[in-house]
Amino acid sequence: MARLGPVGPLCEDRLVVSASSSKSRPGLLDGLDPEQRAAAAAPRGPVCVLAGAGTGKTRTITHRIAHLVGAGHVAAGQVLAVTYTARAAGEMRTRLRGLGIEAAQALTFHAAARRQLRYFWPRIVGDRPWDLLDNKFRYVGQAAQKVGLGTETEVLRDLASEIEWAKASLVTPDDYPLIAARTQRDTPAAVTQVAEVYRNYEKLKNAAQVLDFDDLLLHTTAALEEHGAVAEEFHDRYRCFVVDEYQDVTPLQQRLLDAWLGGRDDLTVVGDANQTIYSYNGASPRPLLEFTRRFPEATVVRLERDYRSTPQVVALANQVIGAARGRPAGSRLKLIGQRPAGPEPRFAEYDDEVVEAQAVARRIRELIDGGVAASEISVLYRVNAQSEAYEQALSEVNVPYLVRGGERFFARKEVRQAIIALRTASGGNAEGDLVTIVRRVLAPVGLTEQPPAGGGAAKERWDALLSLVELAEELAATVSDADLSRYVNELDQRAAAQHPPTVEGVTLASLHAAKGLEWDAVFLVGLAEGTVPIQHADGDDAAIEEERRLFYVGVTRAREHLGLSWALSRKPGGRRNRRRSRFLYGLVPEDHPAARAAAASRSTQKPTGTKTRCRVCGSPLVETMDIKLSRCAKCPSNVDEDLLARLKAWRVERSRELKVPTFVVFTDATLVAIAEQRPTDDGALVSISGIGATKLERFGAEVLEVIRRSAVS
Ligand code: ATP
Ligand code: MG
Q1: Which of 308, 518, 556 to mutate to test the pocket of ligand 1 (most atoms within 8 A of CB)?
Q2: pLDDT tens-place string over residues 435-444
Q3: Does the reported pTM lie above 0.85?
Q4: Which residues pair with 379 in a beta bridge?
């Protein structure tokens, strides 16, 4: 458990008194395009940037902060920028530092709230600090037991996430039954039982005087809302707020943000509704999409140019999100790639997950040997349990890696020891340059000249210590008079923000944790049904759409190289019964509708020599019905219901005119296949089973018109 005590002031940084001129540093905004510049240079007040992945949203807000500070509108220390993951916050700090802004806070909502709560705690609760729960299972278990529910891990996990959803959605135990019913939640037990577990959990936790992560936000909000003096001090201290990834704000975070603002409007938000990936957690893109309703005078900017990825990656990303349906899809922006051309994305199918991991590791080795830095490569997966195969495979080819961006870096024993030793040394007057001093202080903690022989835990410890030296080198290179106390201060700030120094290694991270980040090479692995989309999303359209957006987030992390792979069996020698992700439909080059149409038009007949393959999983089709649908009956259907209804109505009309039964026009299976594949030209249409040259000539144009009309309505 982490201590949550009254340590340190609200913010350790000095208030940097800004330049008195009203202009920001000359040239500061030169690196922005006109739209980005409009957002960055907008006067103080509400600003909203609605834009797709890689269009420079984060870049725009860091420049905006630098501009506001440089122009004297606000002191750097009065700026609070929040984002979703610790690593993204770290990235923001690094970018701010690059623009000469040191004192602005860039934190996650949780880290910011934790810091504030720690500072105000003695005033609102008392001197005794409450511990912070790393894991709520114990209390959820006791609470479930009282209600007579099972205490198996899965049950507790589901109950814990339901409690998290309720707290993030500002739903109390009393309100839970009504709201769960109204929102038709798929609850892990009867609603009254879940409410009871939730109520018990809160009681047990409060009696033990511990806090969970959501409490950090709840208590901070309450402190600001209910304690006038606390609010006054806070509002005096922070004046300018910036939220990155605003599409995923929860009602609880929004409430905290409102408490921070305290009726003011100095708020810049940026986001991309198509990257909403935490809805299951209570997050919603609504505050982003409705920002101008709340602040009608806001400056609103839309960006379309994608500076991150090659046109090849951008084209794939546009295809992925082009297939999205539902509300966020309505806010779709088409990205326009700005970078020079690069390699085509590579798709690969493997027999099992071990072989897949080995192949990916070999490819990574090749890239590194070809000059790509290991830290510019990532492997992204849907669930954390997938990391193990990659840890193993990368070790086998001697590639260093770090799992999940190393958020737990500061919890490592040797790092804690190192920081204590460095802090002690900073009290004295050490001789020499910063890097030499740091090396000297870290030697007794275990930093030898040469890395320990072999790999394993000893090498990991050594790497962690070495990264502290590298951080000292970086600081010495960027800050002219950096001394040991400045360095220790940097470490403290990084520890508070959970921002580890960069370790030279391949990043292994979940798709969720990769949000906002970018790498030269990205490997999206395990793209099989049941994993992407995740099993429990099946049958729930909204959940499937969220999985699709998650996949889109993954694709858009790549600057240049993008690998997409899946395995037919989980274990070596296992049954090869897994199917590739439905989201790959139409993306894998050989089964792209255009490629199939080209093959079909080469001969007027359908290619007969080659087997027809399922368009979802790629396996050969034998059953007639399956061939008609172009997919296995078992494979998930992604039928567009609206289009299907329109096609059926059109068919009824046409069959009446022609005085023939409806199936003579098209069979149901053919209509379903059309509604699933939504062909947009003759080539794609003729590649659907049941549509030959005659039908194409008779009905093709009409069918395409029905499809077109359904797409625009
Ligand atoms: P995401 O939605 O994934 O968070 P984003 O919109 O925040 O993406 P950034 O991370 O700010 O995008 O920018 C993507 C990349 O493009 C970064 O490497 C950034 O430095 C670069 N970039 C952004 N704008 C420009 C520009 N005007 N000129 C050159 N490079 C740019
Ligand atoms: Mg970003």
Answers
A1: 308
A2: 999 999 999 9
A3: no
A4: 508, 523
